[in-house]
Amino acid sequence: MTPAVAIVDVVKHFGTLKALDGVSLSIEQGEFFGLLGQNGAGKTTLISSLAGLVRPDAGRLSVLGYDVIRDFRDARRRLGVVPQELVFDPFFNVRETLQIQSGYFGIRKNDDWIDEILHHLDLTGKASVNMRRLSGGMKRRVLVAQALVHKPPVIVLDEPTAGVDVELRQGLWQFVRRLNAEGHTIILTTHYLEEAENLCGRIALMKQGRILALDTTANLMAAHPGGTLEDVFVRTMQQ
Amino acid sequence: MTGFWTLFYKEFLRFWKVAFQTVAAPVLTALLYLLIFGHVLDDHVRVHGVQYTSFLIPGLVMMQVLQNAFANSSSSLIQAKITGSIVFVLLPPIPYSAFFVAYVLAAVVRGLMVGVGVLLATVWFAEITVVSPLWILVFSITGGAMFGALGMIAGIWAEKFDQLAAFQNFLIMPLTMLSGVFYSIYTLPTFWQGVSHYNPVFYMIDGFRYGFFGVSDVPPQSSLLVVAACFAVVSLLTLQLLKSGWKLRA
Q1: Mean pLDDT of residues grouped by 10 in chain B (250 residues)?
Q2: Which residues of A touch B89 (CB under 8 A)?
Q3: SS3 readout for chain B
């Protein structure tokens, strides 16, 4: 089966900084995959390369077999990205934001799916509220909704729960788990290691633009008996 | 196609939702120019045999078309870059050519709306004739499109609002103000007449004014050739920047 995401020998420099140093990785369809690492490890650069926001110096990336540069239209249609930064367009309300995002992906009359997303993310009551008037947590939910509006088979969540209250986290994970159960591939970066431990079937640990460890969560934990994923993370980063 | 239309619609809504600032305010500015310059000069100056206020109105209309077309695309891009919301248009599968046309078209629409507004607000102050509406339309669209594309270049290049302001104050303003909006270049010394011929905005205003009075400093066909050539160069440069992802994609 075609992998959901294939990353082969990707290198990216920012000036003298080597942000990605020959990263190779394959994520199968339907996986819940964790991409973990300290700040500056290269997680967001890797995700941005996959989304076409960063152009790698070398290597290839593809989404469901579509090269992210050569076949960018097909690749981007199949990818939904929740960015790490809390960004929004202050001119529009929540529903307009989602309708516009649908239109960018060539989807018109998407209101049934938009209503469903709004319901699952507990945003129904905020549909007519301008983005400026939402709390940080609400804005984060809209970012998730924007990433899902075109029903992408591969969903990337870049630290989606940073600065988010417990209630939203639980609601968000419940929804994302459901999407994963329905066949969506989920790629998650987070600094909350207990979340990754509970959610991810497989995990890659990154440091200084390289993958130090890549295995199932169970195997990573088994290599450090009695420890938590945090213990595994700390020991791996000390290598 | 829907991606393109959505982007155009979004850009349209972006200025229409704040039309008091983006449409009404430039109309008021033009009206003030007319009241001040018209009052001072109307009894003393005739240009091409036309009363000064009548001569001034088409120039003011075109100046506002150009400046507002530039402001639309440049402010949209810089704002999206600075707030980070640019990712919403970079993540979808919108080709760079559609990206270009959507921004330029929205800029032209805003420019034309302001231009119509200025004309409606000022037409009561002087006798205005329309000799050739086609030339009026052709020059307002090509001029607005060129300044919309220039606005894209400025918006892509600038990383801070003060850099955009510098582009606007040191390039766009002099180009438009010294283009014959307020005077015929044949009232200038010979040297400055020659310099004016290197300013593409001069041809836009001169050709646009021809549509009203049937009189111009340069034949409108020649002006159109210059404007079209400049638009082609600016468009190619903008498309190249978008294709390369310069300052948009790292």
Answers
A1: 89 94 93 84 72 88 95 95 92 94 97 96 88 95 96 95 92 86 82 87 93 90 96 97 91
A2: 104
A3: CHHHHHHHHHHHHHHHCCHHHHHHHHHHHHHHHHHHHHHHHCCCCEECCEEHHHHHHHHHHHHHHHHHHHHHHHHHHHHHHHHCCCHHHHCCCCCHHHHHHHHHHHHHHHHHHHHHHHHHHHHHHCCCCCCCHHHHHHHHHHHHHHHHHHHHHHHHHCCCHHHHHHHHHHHHHHHHHCCCCCCCHHHCCHHHHHHHCCCHHHHHHHHHHHHHHCCCCCCHHHHHHHHHHHHHHHHHHHHHHHHHCCCCCC
